[in-house]
Design goal:
Layout lengths: L1 H26 L15 E6 L2 E5 L3 E6 L2 E7 L7 E7 L4 E6 L3 E5 L4 E4 L10 E5 L2 E5 L3 E6 L4 E7 L1 H6 L4 E7 L4 E8 L8 E8 L6 E7 L5 E7 L4 E11 L11 E11 L6 E7 L8 E7 L2 E6 L3 E6 L11 E4 L4 E7 L2 E6 L4 E4 L2
Length: 352
């Protein structure tokens, strides 16, 4: 009898320990991505002929080789720029400031502001044709250009809970009722972390997944951008290598590779366009700037790296590396130029 009681007691203890362990692992779930951080400083938008618009807290300047060509006042309460997105092919760009949305018609070099203020401080922005999606901590809003009229705005919490996503990282509008959403799912005791891209339709009054894919090349998602067509996701791929001692990845070493993945909305295929194994143990991408032939990456430590987009292949190292300090942003200017703005005068970086 005593033996049976001891056995039952051990069994209950084992089950309790297992439950406690599971709860602890669940509670210690590792978020696969650092939190989104707004730019909170000057941003640039290419205006053609190596000229650009420079957006700051209280003004917009058109700048070129001869300096400032035009200055426009920003509306009261606009605040610092938080995010920027450009669709070069279709001629639209937007800058989401903390309290207002700026619209740029690239062909006419015309800047206008949406009449209604933004409901929440923005974290991310994506422009596709005459649509702009503004992502905040709790909601996503889609605006029509050039007037900036709000088409719809919805909270994210119910959707994130349904699909066990920790947060949304980017939303790319495909039409008034269809969009791509990039979500991050934490590592749990019974599952790995995952970056998910969903094509969502809301034409029937509620959100419905049309297509979904995971991005296997990314373990940690740092930053997102769009060129109006494709999505670009930057982060780190993490793996355990078991190669021979002395080689890169000594037996049992955990290695990280900096990766940029392009996602085609039409096919939902994800393709690695940058695979940089040199120093990803220390990088944390905070901004992507994408344009024809180039992608620029601003890292948290102040580093700027510029990669050449290589057809169907992938880049293994940047064409340019430099350090501009912790507070700057980068923008595509031409197939060979990136403009860097922040404290002091803007600088144009040329790559061959």
């Amino acid at each position: 009898m005593t033996s049976r009681r001891c056995s039952a007691s051990r069994s209950r203890s084992s089950r309790a320990a297992a439950l406690l362990c599971a709860a602890a692992l669940e509670g210690c779930a590792a978020t696969p991505s650092p939190p989104l951080v707004p730019i909170d400083g000057p941003v640039a938008v290419a205006a053609g002929a190596r000229e650009f618009f420079l957006f700051d807290r209280d003004k917009v300047e058109l700048r070129g080789a001869d300096g400032v060509a035009q200055t426009l006042a920003a509306p009261a309460g606009a605040g610092a720029p938080a995010a920027v997105s450009v669709d070069l092919e279709r001629g639209w760009a937007c800058v989401a400031c903390r309290g207002a949305l700026a619209i740029v018609q690239l062909a006419d070099r015309q800047v206008t502001w949406a009449t209604a203020p933004l409901a929440e401080p923005p974290l991310a922005l994506a422009v596709s044709g005459d649509l702009a999606a503004v992502l905040s901590r709790t909601s996503v809003a889609v605006h029509r250009l050039p007037g900036g009229e709000l088409l719809w705005r919805e909270t994210l919490a119910p959707w994130l809970k349904q699909f066990r996503l920790d947060e949304a990282r980017c939303v790319l509008p495909l039409s008034e009722q269809e969009f791509l959403l990039v979500g991050a799912r934490s590592m749990r005791f019974n599952s790995n972390s995952e970056i998910v891209v969903q094509k969502i339709d809301r034409s029937q009054g509620q959100w419905r997944v049309v297509q979904q894919t995971s991005v296997p090349g990314l373990t940690f998602l740092h930053a997102c951008a769009s060129d109006g067509h494709a999505l670009y996701l930057a982060g780190v791929h993490e793996e355990m290598r078991t190669g021979p001692m002395g080689a890169r990845g000594q037996g049992g070493a955990l290695l990280m590779t900096f990766v940029i993945v392009g996602v085609d909305p039409a096919t939902m295929n994800a393709r690695e366009i940058v695979w940089d194994e040199r120093h990803a143990h220390r990088v944390l991408a905070r901004q992507l700037a994408v344009g024809k032939d180039l992608v620029a990456v601003r890292h948290e430590g102040g580093e700027l790296e510029i990669y050449r987009l290589v057809g169907e292949g992938r880049s293994g190292a940047p064409m340019y590396e430099g350090n501009f300090g912790p507070s700057f942003s980068a923008a595509w200017l031409s197939p060979n130029d990136v403009v860097v703005v922040g404290a002091g005068e803007p600088r144009i970086v040329r790559v061959q």
